[in-house]
Amino acid sequence: MGGDRGPAEIVAGAVDAASERIAPVIFGPAGLDTRGLEHVVAPDVIEMDDKPADAVRAKPNSSMVAACRSVGEGRCDVVVSAGSTGAMLAAGFRVIGRLPGVMRPAIGVVLPALRGPAVLIDAGANADARPEHLLQFALMGSIFSEEVLGIVRAEVRLLSIGEEAEKGNQLTIEAHALLAGSDLPFRGNVESRDLLRDPGDVIVCDGFTGNIALKAIEGTIRTMFGSLTEEITRTSAGKLGGLLIRPGARRLRGRLDPDNHGGAYLLGLKGLVVIAHGNSSRRAIQNAILLGARGVEKDVVGRLGARLPERTPTGAVREP
Amino acid sequence: MGGDRGPAEIVAGAVDAASERIAPVIFGPAGLDTRGLEHVVAPDVIEMDDKPADAVRAKPNSSMVAACRSVGEGRCDVVVSAGSTGAMLAAGFRVIGRLPGVMRPAIGVVLPALRGPAVLIDAGANADARPEHLLQFALMGSIFSEEVLGIVRAEVRLLSIGEEAEKGNQLTIEAHALLAGSDLPFRGNVESRDLLRDPGDVIVCDGFTGNIALKAIEGTIRTMFGSLTEEITRTSAGKLGGLLIRPGARRLRGRLDPDNHGGAYLLGLKGLVVIAHGNSSRRAIQNAILLGARGVEKDVVGRLGARLPERTPTGAVREP
């Protein structure tokens, strides 16, 4: 039921993603045409304005909660949803549960930076966070970067509003000190203007800041492609030029288009969760499912679980 | 002395800005060639890593403090600086002083959104802010938008990570309630992806968030123009297309280029302050000075001073 475009779009993306190695299971309302895919009937619906924690408790047969349960109980390997991020987070927390030692699960998004892929964590799970949470996000991001992206000793940077240690808000100033005192390869602050250029391998921030930065980048890319088309097609010469640059522009768009990534991992749970954009297209859903499948193949959860305890950093306070 | 490119670049921009209506005065070290412009010798230098408040106290003859003094004492009309924002804020606060009723001065930046100019406030003066500060930023932004940009009943929106009132962090959730209870035309939250499209007339946020969003937009624009050029010039057809679209691309670039705006107003002080980018070019400095001159002509400070007390909103707590 998740996603702004309705269940048919989700089913279409799942059909596109299905292969010998991937068997999508659709969790949704009775009567839904799942086009031959396995169908688990989940009649409850979590609305965008439901309070996440309440909704997860009150609606155990919503598609999100039922799908998380199937992963928690080992019947499925990964859950992919384009529904409310808050509800998905609550469902993951309550139904799948956290890995030992994890204070707060966080969303890790792979940014298509010029120097190579970089992990932004947290991209929206924790709107308010404490310095020790940021330290643990850095650790989870590093393990993810090393194990899944294959980056050796991933460079960690802290997203702030100036490169100097004392530039930032109370949260980043305290997090800077914790990161500098940890055994992570911490390279100081990074400003949001460098996120698409050279942001390091792992960029750490609270979920509010990460979401603001990510959506500012996405919105700017979309607005710029639209405005550029408008500006250059004002003249005949520009229209011809527009045709000639189309292949190059498409390559760039393809590299930057969030639909090509499809989603982001929610890291720190005992099962794998992929969060897709609310307005995901069929192609975005397909790619989110492929991302989920790669996460299963790379055993993201197992590797985080194995390496988190060994590297729980100095200063991290485990919550009961 | 402010600015990453050295005093000569600042002088060049000031020479370009000079006219019958604008008489730039250069505050800088002895021996500086001010190319005929009035020169006030200010030998102290505030470094980027100086602690702002300490530096302002310890270096009364720095260019920033001396220039603020000249505005505070009415010898100049507006001060423009590309130096450390923190030091400029501290100098403005201490040497020029706040307008009656103002808790925290804030940086207002005009965004070139598709639907028309919009004011983002605070763009970086207050890395940590409280809900009542955001309410006052909204008020200052509204007065600025109405009086200077000529927008009638400027629509106020709150920058957050979801459109619903309960989406955001503790600060935005509380600020949302204050804004909704005020007499401002508040239209709810706006997400950063809409900042260049349709963000309302006044976008309110703390200075950390505003700075993150602004620099993410600027960085994305710069990276995209660079990457697009690279992608399309890979083929001969693309190179030809690149030539043909150049006029349109230049128009877009001109509209979006921060150098064309030059700077931002620091609002809430008893004198006018324009903060320019640290790496301002000669053209950016020229435009920052023109922006300052427009602010003097429009009497930004006088209008804020006259209208702030009349509209000090419900819930705002004045600091002693």
Please characterize this protein's 3D structure.
- The structure is a homodimer of 320-residue chains.
- With 320 residues, chain A is an alpha/beta fold.
- Chain A folds into two domains: 7-102 and 260-298, Isopropylmalate Dehydrogenase; 110-259 and 305-310, Isopropylmalate Dehydrogenase (3-Layer(aba) Sandwich), CATH 3.40.718.10.
- In chain A, 44% of the residues lie in helices and 16% in strands.
- Chain A has ten helices and ten strands.
- Chain A has helices spanning 7-17, 52-58, 63-72, 85-96, 131-147, 170-180, 207-232, 236-256, 282-297, 300-310; strands at residues 25-28, 38-41, 78-81, 106-113, 116-121, 156-160, 186-191, 202-204, 263-267, 272-276.
- In chain A, the strands form two sheets. In chain A, strands 3-10-9-4-5-8-6-7 form an eight-stranded mixed sheet, sandwiched between helices. Chain A has a two-stranded parallel ribbon with strand order 1-2.
- In chain A, helix 6 (170-180) links the parallel strand 6 (156-160) and strand 7.
- Chain A is globular and about 55 Å long.
- At the A-B interface, helix 7 and helix 8 of A face helix 7 and helix 8 of B.
